């Protein structure tokens, strides 16, 4: 990557602060080392983790005042999720608009991923996504200790949680005693097999405890797509596109933590590493018939094939983080210090070539698009909590974070087939004989990828936060009220110009929560103001050709952050020793809403995109993000997790949740829901334990409602089929388990209907430019996994 790596002065300043912070922890760590380590009551043996003799249930956080749902590994592990995203498919209010059998961008309460704060061990980490979200399909589920849904915000945490927060708690040094190995394989319906395995160990080391683990996970997703295009709904047929889309790769992950815990001091240092190698290979053909698959359309040779396209994208991602945490109780209260560094690197090398046969002479076009991203974040947080009186305490502190995101976007139209791409070009060339007019001379002269205008840039985002809150309680009532001030300085530098755009903003974010215990039930109520900063790619003043389908994208550095006022009101009731049933109402009012809009010319018509070879043809547009006003989101959430012991079935566990979600946004065409928000999501399941034979089996069923997107020129309705998963396991003694899992057993499909228009008046009048129906399907996946504890 050619982007310069010189950090800003503020980045270097925070790095010095971080080093000082880590240095400051060392005397306390040494003090902790002199104290006999205290065994954490949450430490579980490796045998307990590997051989689950009991059914796991969802729970609630008894200590937190704000509403927090907790799902530990025993809740989801029996269904063998591959990633944290797969694990979240079974918790309330989480939807996905991912491809079939993938769970990457979690959408809490149906809102796009950027509205959800993703935390790893309570801290934010950088990810590949420009909206600051972390794609959860990059965290192996094997490393997870528990998943927490934090429905409201607190002054203790950063305010980037409009929809709420998802905290992925990884295993730490006190999570496990002993070790185990894992080995397994996934079997796909096209005959492909992908292996997976791992090794994990935790135990005492010196005055503290250590835990380490490594995991290798084969990833594969063979999808089939079909698109049918018409002049309008129920109109004349235009063409058909058949596409195969195969995602093939491997994830490598590891974590290591060391902790010392004394009577008044706890010190921990932890590191995590994830590497992803992935190739996305798409091959598509367009035909002028609903069913025929004859050869190329030629002036002299009749046929049905209009175009043949091959697109390959090689993706290499690598992220790692290291953090240190220290807590110390002393005469004036408890002091906590956290320092961390995280880095994410991504490289994408994409190549696309297409042969167009629907012309007198076949034409080959080829393009390359190379992307390089690097995110680096330094953070430092210091907080102190002091008792004010019996049952009342004050907590206050500060947070500093410096984030640098370097971007290098390069493209080249009509390059020659590079030597390392010969196999790609031959895929198409060998499919047609020279008689069909596809000779080698379609390879054009060599070209070099060059940076697109504005594509070589750096965004530096420096945050400085202060917060204070009071918390306490009396009898059955617990409460918390606080205020957080967040200051952000953003600098966007076009390294090719060079030119820099600076902006800054400040937000005061009040929050309050209370919890009232009523026998075996409790009422929770929360209110908070939150903020969502603009996507980083939205701020860059560069034009990306065909970034959204055939539409171009133009950044907008003048974007303001979104802010939201919201509240939650819930009731939870304890069912026996392990079960919980709950209902929760929520509301959010989002101001300065950021949405994509079509750039209009002086006459109010959409500006044509670069995909239009004829300027008079306006079937693609230039899209730009803008602050579009105000939106509202509301809904109700139900969740249940319990044993059927009250009915004499103590070895039967059931769980389920239902979320009904709605919203309202005004645009030029009237009111609608938030783009991409599903109207509902539910899942339910059952687990049956057979202790007499050391076995268990279970099933889970999930369904999410339709989602709708609308911008100028295009409207999309997305629906998903239901997902059914089953498992069966056999336990051998206290050390060995083998488990078989079947997922996507209903061959779930993702179905999209695209309504396309050329102007605002044509969209209002429903005068269609094109109507497209696209269906994406994938077959069932079977998995066999064995674990042995030692």
Description:
Strand 28 and strand 29 form a beta hairpin. The chain has a single domain, classed as TonB-dependent receptor, beta-barrel domain (Maltoporin, Chain A, Beta Barrel). It is mainly beta. The chain is globular. The protein is built from 7 helices and 39 strands. It has a 22-stranded antiparallel barrel. A 5-stranded mixed sheet has the order 2-3-7-8-6. The longest helix has 26 residues.
Mean pLDDT: 85
Q: Determine the oligomeric state from the structure.
A: single chain
Report the total helices. Answer: 7
Q: Based on Cα principal axes, name the global outline.
A: globular
Low-confidence stretches: 1-8, 21-39, 414-446
CATH top level is Mainly Beta
Distance between the termini: 45 Å
Characterize the main sheet.
22 strands, antiparallel, barrel
In CATH, the topology is named Maltoporin, Chain A
């Amino acid at each position: 990557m050619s982007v310069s790596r010189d950090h800003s002065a503020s980045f270097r300043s925070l790095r010095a602060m971080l080093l000082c912070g880590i240095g400051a922890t060392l005397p306390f760590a040494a003090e902790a080392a002199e104290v006999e380590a205290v065994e954490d009551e949450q430490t579980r043996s490796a045998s307990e983790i590997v051989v689950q003799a009991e059914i796991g249930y969802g729970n609630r956080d008894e200590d937190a005042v704000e509403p927090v749902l907790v799902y530990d590994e025993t809740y989801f592990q029996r269904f063998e999720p591959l990633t944290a995203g797969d694990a979240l498919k079974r918790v309330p209010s989480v939807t996905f608009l991912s491809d079939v059998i993938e769970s990457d961008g979690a959408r809490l309460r149906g809102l796009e991923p950027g509205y959800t704060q993703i935390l790893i061990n309570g801290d934010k980490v950088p990810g590949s996504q420009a909206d600051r979200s972390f794609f959860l399909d990059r965290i192996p589920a094997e490393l997870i200790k528990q998943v927490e849904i934090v429905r409201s915000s607190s002054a203790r945490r950063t305010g980037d949680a409009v929809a709420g927060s998802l905290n992925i708690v990884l295993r730490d040094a006190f999570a496990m005693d002993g070790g185990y190995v894992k080995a397994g394989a996934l079997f796909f319906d096209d005959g492909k097999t992908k292996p997976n395995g791992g090794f994990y160990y935790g135990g005492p080391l010196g005055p503290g405890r250590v835990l380490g683990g490594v995991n290798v996970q084969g990833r594969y997703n063979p999808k089939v797509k079909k698109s049918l295009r018409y002049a309008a709904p129920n109109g004349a047929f235009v063409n058909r596109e058949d596409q195969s889309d195969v995602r093939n790769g491997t994830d490598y992950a590891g974590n290591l933590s060391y902790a010392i815990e004394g009577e008044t001091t706890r010190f921990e240092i932890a590191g995590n590493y994830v590497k992803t190698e992935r190739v996305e290979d798409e091959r598509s053909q367009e035909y002028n018939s609903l069913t025929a698959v004859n050869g190329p359309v030629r002036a002299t040779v009749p046929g049905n094939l209009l175009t043949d396209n091959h697109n390959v994208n090689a993706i290499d991602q690598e992220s790692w983080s290291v953090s240190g945490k220290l807590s110390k109780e002393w005469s004036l209260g408890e002091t906590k210090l956290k320092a961390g560094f995280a880095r994410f690197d991504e490289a994408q090398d994409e190549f696309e070539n297409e042969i167009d046969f629907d012309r007198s002479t076949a034409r080959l076009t080829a393009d390359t698009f190379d992307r390089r991203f690097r995110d680096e974040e330094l953070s430092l947080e210091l907080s102190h909590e002091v008792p004010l009186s019996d049952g009342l305490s004050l907590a206050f502190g500060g947070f500093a974070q410096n984030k640098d995101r370097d971007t290098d976007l390069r493209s080249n139209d009509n390059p020659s087939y590079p030597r390392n791409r010969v196999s790609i070009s031959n895929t198409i060339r060998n499919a047609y004989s020279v008689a069909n007019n596809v000779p080698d001379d379609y390879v054009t002269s060599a070209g070099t990828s060059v940076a697109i205008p504005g594509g070589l840039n750096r965004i530096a985002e420096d945050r400085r936060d202060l917060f204070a809150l009071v918390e306490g309680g009396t009898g059955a009532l617990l409460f918390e009220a606080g205020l957080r001030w967040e200051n952000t300085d953003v600098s966007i530098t076009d390294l090719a110009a060079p030119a820099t755009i600076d902006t800054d903003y400040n937000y005061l974010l009040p929050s309050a929560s209370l919890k009232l215990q009523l026998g075996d039930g409790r009422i929770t109520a929360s209110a908070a103001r939150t903020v969502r900063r603009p996507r980083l790619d939205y701020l860059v003043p560069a034009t990306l050709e065909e970034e959204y389908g055939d539409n171009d994208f133009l950044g907008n550095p003048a974007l303001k952050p979104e802010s939201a006022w919201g509240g939650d009101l819930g009731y939870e009731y304890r069912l026996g020793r392990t079960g919980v049933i709950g209902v929760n109402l929520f509301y959010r009012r989002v101001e300065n809403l950021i949405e994509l809009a079509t750039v209009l010319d002086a006459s109010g018509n959409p500006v044509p995109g670069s995909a239009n070879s004829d300027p008079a043809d306006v079937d693609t547009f230039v899209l730009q993000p803008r602050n579009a006003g105000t939106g509202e989101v509301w809904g109700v959430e139900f969740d249940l997790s319990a044993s059927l012991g009250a009915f004499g079935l103590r070895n039967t566990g059931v769980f389920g949740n239902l979320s009904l979600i709605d919203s309202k946004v005004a645009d030029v065409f009237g009111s609608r829901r938030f783009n991409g928000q599903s109207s509902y999501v539910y899942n339910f399941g059952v687990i049956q334990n057979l202790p007499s034979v050391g076995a268990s089996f279970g099933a889970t069923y999930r369904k999410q409602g339709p989602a709708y997107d609308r911008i100028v020129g295009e409207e999309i309705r997305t629906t998903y089929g239901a997902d059914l998963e089953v498992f069966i396991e056999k336990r051998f003694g206290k050390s060995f388990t083998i488990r078989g899992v079947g997922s996507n057993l209903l061959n779930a499909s993702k179905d999209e209907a695209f309504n396309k228009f050329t102007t605002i008046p044509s969209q209002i009048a429903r005068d269609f430019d094109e109507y497209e129906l696209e269906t994406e399907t994938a077959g069932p996946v079977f998995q066999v996994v064995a674990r042995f504890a030692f």
